[in-house]
Predict the structure.
Amino acid sequence: MPCIFQDKNIVLGVCGGIAAYKIPELLRILVKQGASVKVIMTRNAEAFIGKVTFEALSGNPVCVSLFEEENQGAIRHIAWAQESDAVIIAPATANMIGKLANGIADDALSTFMLAVTSHRIICPAMNTNMYENRAVQRNMDILESDGLIILEPDAGELACGVTGAGRLPSPEYIADRLGKQLCKKDLFHQKILVSAGPTMEPIDPVRFISNHSSGKMGYAIAKAAEHRGADVTLVSGPTALRAPIGVHMIHVKTADEMAEAMFENMETSDIVIKVAAVADYKPNVQAEHKIKKKDEKLILQLDKNMDILKALGKRKTHQILVGFAAETQDLDTHAMEKLQEKNLDMIVGNIVGNSESGFGTDTNKVTLYFPDGKKKQFPTMVKDDVANILLDHIAEKVTVDAEN
Ligand code: PMT
């Protein structure tokens, strides 16, 4: 499955605000992910950033006026409106918001907006008092009721020296929310519980037993599910990753903590996906103080951790329960054994311990196994794509279960 932005036509509207300096980075992110981006700037935006920057980064002509002869601006803005999969205005000034709310079309961007029917996202960025002004709030309410999406600005210190709401969110955040708009919503309102990352079993206050799970696979699933409309809770062991936007995070360290969080949230979940690499064993005592290295040999006694997924399989009622199998050999045999032993509806088998798939990698090579003995094998793909393929199969099962 291609990336969300692959071959998508995005129009980026840029107004005259100090935050315009963040927009080349947003454009770069979208282009890097495969989007074709066209930029329409207001005359005031040109006071903050040159159109050549956008032309160079997008590889497309930039529209500032409808009357640019060489670019046939007046005709082109209708074509861009018809072709666009989504439009994002960032930063959106109070002036532009007012014009859009009232159907005023007195420049290239506001005229273009009257012709657009695709997703429209508005990112206001301005001084806090201006943002909170009743007229601006009223105009934003109108835009929302007209079906446009308003991305709330961040709060913080603004360029004008005031501290409050009005900062343009980061380009990564804006791109993520745009991505969500472009996704199908086949998991709308499904409550999904995902576990990700490793667990860390303490030996003493400074040492622990763990594994190489980075959390990338589980976080990719949580992010993709949120984009597809699900209400996602992510139980995460220690990772270096940023929390996916819009996902409820529960941070844990040990297998026992992970078990508790999973059990607590299972009952209210519709779908449970257990991606975490749980440490199978833990030291049977945790030393209160740092163990001194005085002996040549140190023997640690380990206790087996609970198999959380197996316990979830026993408690399963209405949930769709999905596990992962990390194997270095005999994937088919071991994955099918785990599927049956843990009472799963699906298991994702991956061969681990190589540079393309498994722990720490950006890609994964998976096979899906089902209770009827069928399996589906996939080539190596980025983990975002693996996440979407897995969710496609889960969404299909949700539909079939709902019909029965
Ligand atoms: O995090 P990344 O770096 O992106 O790497 C992704 C991954 C390799 C960790 C992931 O794709 C994966 O394979 N996760 C499962 C890892 C694992 O523990 O596999 P397993 O075959 O040992 O366990 C089978 C299943 O039982 C898993 O769903 C696991 O979460 C669960 N389990 C295992 C042991 C235990 N005590 N409790 C469990 O719940």
